[in-house]
Amino acid sequence: MNSMFDNETKSDNAEENLVFHYSHEHRIKNAPKEVQDYYNGNFELNKGIKVLFKNKSNRVILIALVIMTVFALIYSRIQSGRNRGSLGNYKLELTSFAFEEKIYTSLKITEDSKKKSVEKEPVMLSVNASFFDVNNQLAESRENTELLDQTEEKLQWLITDYDITSVEVKVSDGKETLQLEADVKR
Prior knowledge:
Number of strands: 10
Oligomer: single chain
Strand order of the largest sheet: 3-4-5-8
């Protein structure tokens, strides 16, 4: 009978007279099937997508990754939708960021390529920008009237109050009104 203590090795060092017991065959006999297959040469490496479905733990991790990815995509779609919109034949995008104790805000207005009209008429836009502080209180407000006669227009505001955290812009062309919101990126 092979025991784990078949092969004994003694140290030659006089200070440390240690005895090591080691039996490779005994250790492999009690090892899991994958380890025994590896040492016997029968080990097959799982390749490709089969690895993801091989055992229960891999399937759980794959499902968790898929769920987290779906939540991240949904969240990004919901968040990005507040600062974009369309009004008539134009697409609008609101952005705001902080730099050196100032808040830079811009409203980009571009002609919608899907809704291009043959006859181009200038459009008068009324723009009301409201800037809110940390307590969600109105800190400052700006009003503009802009005549759109180009394919792209950009309205910009510079605010010196660094406590601004969000911006709300209402744009009206006389027929319909669009409200856009953006958080100040720091």
